[in-house]
Structure formats: C-alpha cells, structure tokens
Amino acid sequence: MTEPTAPAITKEELDVLIREGVPLVGGFGVVIDSLGAGTIRLRLPYKDDFVRPGGTVTGPAMFGLADVALYGAVLSLIGRVELAVTTSMTINFLRRPPPVAIAAEARILKMGKRLAYGEVLVFSEGDPEPVAHATGTYSIPPHDPVKLAVSGYQPPEAE
Asked: Distance between CA atoms of 103 and 118, rounded to whole angstroms?
C-alpha cells in the first residue's frame, strides 16, 4: 500500500471553510489538530453550553463534531468541494462522557466518484476509550478527480 502524499486541502483552508461554511459547528470553536489524506482529528474545547442535565456532554455536540470531522476527511481527499453533503450518518453513544473537551478522529474507508464512506471515533479529553462511534456517507458533486489521484490515497486494508 502506498502512503498518501498530502491532503488536498490545507488545515488553514479547511478551518476557514468550517467556520464560514458550517457556522453552527464552526461557532462551537472546533480546532483542527491534524489533517492527512483521508484522515482528520478535530477537538471541541469544553463549554458549559455543551453540558446537559446529568453533567454529561450533549449528544448534538458530539454528533455535530463527528459530522464535520467526516466532512473534513472527505475534503482532505477531494479538495474544496463545498457542496459535498452528508447523505446518511449514524452515531452510537458508547458511554457517558464527562464535562470536558471532546475529540473526533475520522477516516475514509471507501472513496468513490460520487460517494464516500467513513467512520468517526469520539473521545473525551484524556481518555483513550471512545465515548461514541459514528459512520456516515457523503455525496460528492462533480469535481476534479485528478486531485484524488494526486493525493496518493489508498483505502485502509480490511482488518
């Protein structure tokens, strides 16, 4: 398997796109920790607004972070194709996250011409065990497929 060269979008370009193109989640204060071809790690700093009764991080905050993480992973392969949209997404909440910052790690499992499929693990800050797992499909509008070939992306081997 060849290693991917570089993402098709920079962290800076993606940061602006998240803040301006996805303002609801962008306004949460999402931080891009790392970006690779087909992978991304985002962090959502803790805010009292993200806590629900019972002292846990609210599901919509985790879902929003997972969705924008998958969006970033898709764009890391195809570049700034802003009209790539979520077709479906499922999240499973695995355990109760404490009221701390959360992180999302996304990776693309299959990239086609019109659809991308990936998964996202959500973690509480400082804990190696995930608090949520999401899978999703993105619809990809017509774009320049040369960017995908140049990225050198190869899907991960089945485990």
From this structure: 16
Contact 104, 42 (CB under 8 A): yes
Domain ranges of the chain: 11-151
**One-letter amino acid of 133:** H
Question: 50 with 61: CB under 8 angstroms?
Answer: yes
Please give the average per-residue pLDDT across 41-50, as a whole number. 95
Tell me the two tokens of residue 35: 């970006």
pLDDT tens digits, 94-116 = 999 999 999 999 999 999 999 99
Tell me how many degrees the CA angle 36-46-122 measures, rounded to the nearest 5.
45
Which two structure tokens, joined as six digits, stand for 27? 């306004």
Instruction: Return the CATH superfamily for domain 11-151.
Output: Hotdog Thioesterase (3.10.129.10)
pLDDT at 159 over 50: no
Please count the other Cβ atoms lying within 10 Å of the Cβ belonging to residue 138.
25
pTM of the entire predicted model? 0.86
Is residue 1 pLDDT above 50, yes or no? no
